[in-house]
Amino acid sequence: ANSDKLSVAHMAPALQGSEAADHEGGACDDEVTWSQVRELLESGDERRQLFLDVFETALGIETPTEALLKIKDFLGNFLVRDWDYKGFCKVLGALPEDDGDEEHWKSLEDQRLEEDMSAAATLMLRMAVTIAKAHSLQRKDWEDVNSACGNAVRSLPACYRLQRALPGALNDARALRALAQQEIQDSD
């Protein structure tokens, strides 16, 4: 299979939780595309579907390979800095479109933020596992993504809140330090 598509022969067992592909014969001509991976991850859940829409649109995802490579950026940068959580809640129907009450919004944000961010991190982990199994990747090949997803469950809500609460200069200094640390980690 090329880097933009996943082999069906590897995908089916991965989705059933199997560790090895039980596929006889040579290469399979059928391939799984990003849209098929998306369908498997959505499974009728409106919040998951919306997270996938946001992930795909914000980071320009077109292939499973791109998705796997951009999970860390989505969790570590986009959800913390650029995510319109209020708009997300409005699309899900948790906050009425015409609600201008800031206190009501803050209360809703306090109630839902951790659960929604945990759902995002869990979805990204499911995506990584699905794609990694489809590509027959070893755990060490994608352990950085696995670790990022695990850490995101605990740290995303706090990072999101800090990003919005810290004054501009302090916020910029913190962001520069985090980017420098990320570059060091990426170079290792």
Quick recap:
The protein is mostly helical and about 190 residues long.
What does this structure look like?
- With 188 residues, the chain is mainly α.
- 71% of the residues lie in helices and 2% in strands.
- The chain contains eight helices and two strands.
- The chain has helices at residues 8-15, 34-42, 46-59, 64-82, 85-92, 102-134, 143-165, 168-187, and strands spanning 6-7, 31-32.
- It has a two-stranded antiparallel ribbon with strand order 1-2.
- Helix 1 (8-15) crosses helix 6, helix 4 packs parallel to helix 7 (143-165) and helix 6 packs antiparallel against helix 7 (143-165).
- The longest helix is centred in the middle third of the chain and has 33 residues, at 102-134.
Set out the fold topology.
Elements: E1 6-7, H1 8-15, E2 31-32, H2 34-42, H3 46-59, H4 64-82, H5 85-92, H6 102-134, H7 143-165, H8 168-187
Helix pairs in contact: 1-6, 3-4, 4-6, 4-7, 6-7
List keywords for this structure.
8 helices, 188 residues, disordered N terminus, mainly alpha, two-stranded antiparallel sheet
Q: Helicity level, as a percent range?
A: over 70%
What is the H/E string? EHEHHHHHHH
Taking all residues together, what is the mean pLDDT? 80
The radius of gyration computed from the alpha-carbon positions, rounded to a whole number of angstroms, is 18 Å
Characterize the biggest β-sheet. 2 strands, antiparallel
The best one-word shape is globular
The helix tally amounts to 8
Stretches with pLDDT under 50, minimum 5 residues = 1-30
Beta content: under 5%
Strand order, biggest sheet? 1-2
Number of strands: 2
Q: What structural category arises from helix and sheet content?
A: mainly alpha
Query: Span between N and C termini?
Result: 28 Å
